[in-house]
Every structure is written in structure tokens, then in C-alpha cells.
């Protein structure tokens, strides 16, 4: 019985991805000999990888959060409990304890997957720094990695220039066209329903909160509303609820149902609470950078539940720390491994290369060969003895602590750490040297541990329960994003949603737009331009086709199909696309 394939991937080929458990990122296609040197230089990251970079940066930003940490803890706890059932003669945990953690994780991942992909696609195609003093980590790292005019004093301008260059390119319009014809289903990654959900959230909320004209602020706010929510952490880690697969008089007594109900309520609270005054308080709190900023804001979470979430998260970390000190053998090693993965969630891996590595007798780590010369030769860590083997080099940066670093590993052991960052201290170097820095080794270890969990849960009784909840998840996600509540089409009348969903099921907006490929291309170009231009006159000056004619056609399409493509704010003479 396979567990869900939970990597959050870009839509390109080959696919880059983010692992929610470790928060490790893989940008596919980068080349060691060609690209590594450029990664060390501001504004020189290979430009062809910008869409995937931004997409995975959004995923990483979301999972480097209280909710992301809680999800990682749940999944790793299922590893730990599985290990105990195998190694302990009279274990106090059993397969139902493993099932509890595994299904809580699966519930949250399933229900949030379309939202997560929608946010990542919004970052890729729409997010753009405006007038807000708050700049998202995504915008900052876009400026640092792709902004030719980058400087710390003008980081927002560098981000705008880099994003403009990409959004005005043919490749951006082509990728957007491809997205708009994706199936309108939650099967797989749920790209189109998730993207339309996020796009339409913004259009809806603009009526109440004009500050969200700054789409980068919208991205930061939406991430915080869902992923920094300690109320959701409390539901994920709640020890007072358990699975109730055979029914209960109160649905919220079931741990997975409680998570699902809480998430659905969060969407409603987003619509009810958001206004310009709340966004100003959010900006101030986020800019102040206080670790407990969430507790200072009223974003609709019950204060007692927030406090409970903070306590439960800290208790989970303390339990793992104490366990790795007091328990021995394999179990202690497992807990140390989990703690390292949790400690390094802030690192964004922008390059990972598997290569032969050796440490020579002079204390140098050398790796890879181009025309018989090493690709790199750097000092090894103190105490590392000469050795050689299969290894890797990883290049990371930390959006949280603002440094970049390279690690070199042999057979999973870090043998060298080097950085050109001015704020990279010996203390940080010592900490990084203890990290699980090899992407390939972390993924192989996860595959082995997941296989052990899956084997345990493949027993008939467990499988029946797992499949029961998996079926519930699919139905809930379908109802939430595509049917019944249909977050993806909030402006469509309730009695028309099923018909619209059926029309879009196979090829997205292609049928809605009259199966007209030319019109589809114009809508894609309009939508991409709309990320940087809002006034109709400015958009019309950038296109070779008749904007008023397209808007007239889209108005007629909306009358016929009940699917709005673009909203015109007449008093402001601006357009905001729903797609």
C-alpha cells in the first residue's frame, strides 16, 4: 500500500521538487561544471531556471514554518514508531500509533496540496513587489539570484527588473498557456484548481483590501495565514483526539476530521477577516520580526488554541532531543537524524551534484573532474582523514539567516564546508558540518524509512483504515476546490459549478474559451502582463492585438459559461485577471 507521493513539484520537465518532510529542494537541470561558479555571484544564477527556482522557493518558504515543522514531525514520528515496533520486544507503540501520525500528515498534505501548488504558481506567474515595505523571501531571493542591478539598498527594484524580464518573455506566455489547459481536477498535483483558487482569492479580497494590489504582499499574507498558524499546529499535534474510523457522535473527535474542518474554516475566515487595517497590522508585525508575531495578530485563530499549538510543537522537539540523549543504539541515531532534518529546514538547496569526492593527505577536499582537473579543491573540516568515495556537493542559502554555503559530502558525511558570506561565522560552520547535507542520501534514507512504514501499514486491518481515510480525503478535496464550495470558482453561481467543472475537466479553460487557440494565447499573454501592469491603457500599449475586443469577448464568454476571466474595476480603469 503506497503512501501518497507527496513531493511538491514544478510543472516543467524535468520536474524540480520540494520534499515537505525535510524541506529539501531539487532544482532539476543545473550542471556542476557550467553553473556552480555562477551560483556564488549575485544575479548570476542561470536564468533559464528562474520559473522552477521561484516555484520551489514558494514551497520552501511555506514549509519553513510552524505548520511545515509540525508536518515534518508527524511524518518522522511515523518512522520512529515503526522502528520501535520492529526493534522493541514489548513495545508500547503499535501499528495504530503509526497510522495515527501517518494519516494526520496525509490529511493535511491532501487538503493543502492544491493551495500549496496555487501559491507556488502565483509566485511564478503573478507575485510582484509593490509599495509595501514588506518584501517576501521569494522576492528577495529572486533579486539576489537573478537581479543584475542587485544591491541591498535597491533589492525591491532588482526583484522587479528580474521579474519583468521573465514575464515579458515568450517563454512565460507559453508556460502560462500550458497551465491554463491543465485538467480541472485534483488528481495528481491539482495545479489548475489550486492556481484559480489563489487568483480568485485575490480578486475577491481586493474589494475589501486594496493593499492587496501589491501581489507580493498578498503572497506573504496568504503564506502566513495558513502556514504560520499555530491553531493548525494544535490540530495536527493534538494528543486529545484519535482516529475514529467507525464513526463518532462528534466528527471533531476524529483527529483527521478535526484537521479537515479546521482548514475549511480557515478559508472562510480569510474571506471574512481580511481588510486593509488587518494587512497594515500584519505588515508591522512581520517587519518587526518578533518570533511570536503570530500571537500578536488576530488572524482568526483562537488564542488558547494558538498557545496550545506553540506548546505542543515545543514539546515534540523537546521529546526528540531528550530521547536522543537518553536512548541508545538505532533509536537514538534515528532521533538525532530527525532533529538534524528539523534544524536545517531553513536551508534552500539551489544546486545538488553527485560526484566522486576525495580528501587528500594535505587536508583538501577535491571533487569532480573536467579535463582531468578537479571542479573544486577546498580545505576539509578539521579531523577529517584522507578518504575517497561517492559524494556530492550542495549549494544552499538561508532565507531566514541570509547566508549562503556549500557543503561537500562523502557517503553522506560532510567533509568540507565553505562560504563567501561575510556573516558566516565559525559557529554556523560547526552547525552546518553536522547537517544531513547530501540531498541524494536524504532521499534514499527517506525511501527506506517510508518503505518500512508502508510495509507495517500494509497489513489488512491497517490498510482498510488507511484506504477509508484516503477515500475521504479525495472527496473532501474535490468538494473544497472543484465542486460544492469550489474555491477555484467563487464568482460562479452555485447551481452552475458542476457544469463549469465538467467543461473544464479535461482541458481546463480551452473549452471555456470556445476551443480557440488564438484566444487562449491572448488570455495567457494578458494574464502574464497583468502581473506587472494593471491599467488598461498600459496593457493595450504592450500587445499587438485589440485589448477592448478581447475584453468584450471575455464578457460574452462569462455570460454564457458563468466563468469570469478578468475583472474590470471601472472607477480605477484597471484589470485583474481571474486566471
Produce the secondary structure layout.
Blueprint: E1 8-9, E2 17-18, E3 25-26, H1 32-39, H2 50-63, H3 66-87, H4 95-125, H5 137-146, H6 155-167, H7 170-180, H8 191-206, H9 215-227, H10 230-237, H11 255-273, H12 276-288, H13 293-296, H14 303-326, H15 329-343, E4 348-359, E5 364-370, E6 373-379, E7 387-398, E8 403-410, E9 413-418, H16 426-433, H17 439-457, H18 460-482, H19 497-504, H20 509-512, H21 517-529, H22 536-542, H23 547-561, E10 566-569, E11 574-577
Antiparallel strand pairs: 1-2, 2-3, 4-5, 4-7, 5-6, 7-8, 8-9, 10-11
Helix pairs in contact: 2-4, 2-5, 3-4, 3-10, 3-15, 3-17, 4-8, 4-11, 4-18, 5-6, 7-21, 10-14, 14-15
3D architecture notes:
This protein has about 575 residues and is α+β, with helices and mostly antiparallel strands. About 55% of the residues lie in helices and about 10% in strands. It has 23 helices and 11 strands. A 6-stranded antiparallel β-sheet has the order 6-5-4-7-8-9. Helix 4 (about 95-125) runs parallel beside helix 18 and helix 5 crosses helix 6 (about 155-165). The longest helix has about 30 residues, at about 95-125. It is globular and about 70 Å long.
Amino acid at each position: 500500500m503506497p503512501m501518497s507521493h507527496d513531493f511538491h513539484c514544478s510543472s516543467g520537465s524535468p520536474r524540480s521538487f520540494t520534499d515537505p518532510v525535510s524541506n529539501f529542494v531539487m532544482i532539476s537541470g543545473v550542471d556542476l561544471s557550467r553553473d556552480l561558479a555562477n551560483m556564488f555571484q549575485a544575479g548570476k544564477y542561470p536564468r533559464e531556471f528562474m520559473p522552477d527556482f521561484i516555484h520551489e522557493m514558494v514551497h520552501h518558504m511555506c514549509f519553513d514554518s510552524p505548520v511545515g515543522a509540525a508536518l515534518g514531525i508527524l511524518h518522522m514520528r511515523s518512522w520512529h514508531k515503526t522502528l520501535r515496533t520492529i526493534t522493541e520486544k514489548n513495545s508500547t507503540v503499535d501499528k495504530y500509533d503509526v497510522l495515527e501520525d501517518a494519516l494526520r500528515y496525509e490529511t493535511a498534505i491532501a487538503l493543502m496540496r492544491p493551495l500549496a501548488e496555487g501559491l507556488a504558481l502565483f509566485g511564478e506567474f503573478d507575485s510582484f513587489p509593490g509599495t509595501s515595505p514588506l518584501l517576501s523571501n521569494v522576492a528577495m531571493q529572486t533579486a539576489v539570484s537573478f537581479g543584475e542591478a542587485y544591491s541591498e539598498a535597491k533589492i525591491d527594484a532588482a526583484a522587479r527588473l528580474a521579474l519583468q524580464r521573465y514575464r515579458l518573455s515568450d517563454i512565460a506566455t507559453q508556460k502560462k498557456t500550458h497551465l491554463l489547459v491543465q485538467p480541472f481536477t485534483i488528481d495528481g498535483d491539482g495545479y489548475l484548481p489550486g492556481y484559480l483558487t489563489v487568483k480568485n482569492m485575490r480578486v475577491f479580497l481586493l474589494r475589501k483590501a486594496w493593499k492587496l494590489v501589491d501581489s507580493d504582499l498578498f503572497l506573504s499574507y496568504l503564506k502566513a495565514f495558513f502556514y504560520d498558524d499555530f491553531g493548525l499546529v494544535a490540530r495536527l499535534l493534538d494528543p486529545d483526539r484519535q482516529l475514529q474510523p467507525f464513526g463518532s457522535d462528534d466528527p471533531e473527535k476524529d483527529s483527521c476530521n478535526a484537521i479537515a474542518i479546521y482548514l475549511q474554516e480557515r478559508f472562510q475566515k480569510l474571506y471574512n477577516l481580511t481588510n486593509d487595517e488587518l494587512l497594515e497590522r500584519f505588515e508591522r508585525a512581520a517587519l518587526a520580526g518578533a518570533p511570536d508575531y503570530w500571537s500578536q495578530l488576530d488572524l482568526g485563530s483562537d488564542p488558547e488554541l494558538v498557545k496550545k499549538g506553540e506548546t505542543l510543537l515545543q514539546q515534540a522537539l523537546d521529546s526528540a532531543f531528550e530521547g536522543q540523549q537518553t536512548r541508545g543504539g538505532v533509536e537514538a541515531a534515528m532521533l538525532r537524524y530527525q532533529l538534524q532534518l528539523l534544524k536545517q529546514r531553513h536551508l534552500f538547496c539551489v544546486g545538488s551534484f553527485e560526484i566522486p569526492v576525495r580528501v587528500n593527505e594535505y587536508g583538501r577536499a577535491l571533487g569532480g573532474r573536467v579535463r582531468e582537473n578537479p571542479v573544486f579543491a577546498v580545505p576539509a573540516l578539521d579531523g577529517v582523514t584522507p578518504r575517497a568515495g561517492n559524494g556530492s556537493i550542495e549549494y544552499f542559502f538561508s532565507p531566514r539567516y541570509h547566508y549562503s554555503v556549500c557543503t561537500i559530502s562523502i557517503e553522506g558525511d560532510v567533509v568540507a564546508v565553505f562560504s563567501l558570506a561575510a556573516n558566516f561565522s565559525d559557529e554556523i560552520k560547526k552547525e552546518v558540518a553536522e547537517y544531513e547535507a547530501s540531498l541524494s542520501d536524504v532521499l534514499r534514507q527517506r525511501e527506506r524509512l517510508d518503505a518500512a512504514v508502508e510495509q507495517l501499514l500494509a497489513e489488512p486491518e491497517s490498510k482498510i483504515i488507511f484506504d477509508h481515510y484516503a477515500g475521504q480525503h479525495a472527496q473532501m478535496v474535490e468538494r473544497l476546490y472543484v465542486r460544492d464550495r469550489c474555491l477555484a470558482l467563487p464568482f460562479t453561481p452555485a447551481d452552475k459549478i458542476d457544469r463549469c467543472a465538467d467543461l473544464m475537466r479535461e482541458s481546463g479553460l480551452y473549452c471555456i474559451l470556445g476551443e480557440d487557440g488564438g484566444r487562449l494565447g491572448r488570455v495567457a499573454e494578458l494574464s502574464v502582463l497583468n502581473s506587472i501592469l494593471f491599467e488598461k491603457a498600459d496593457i493595450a500599449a504592450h500587445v499587438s492585438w485589440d485589448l477592448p475586443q478581447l475584453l468584450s469577448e471575455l464578457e460574452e464568454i462569462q455570460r454564457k459559461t458563468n466563468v469570469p476571466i478578468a475583472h474590470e474595476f471601472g472607477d480605477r480603469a484597471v484589470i485583474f485577471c481571474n486566471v
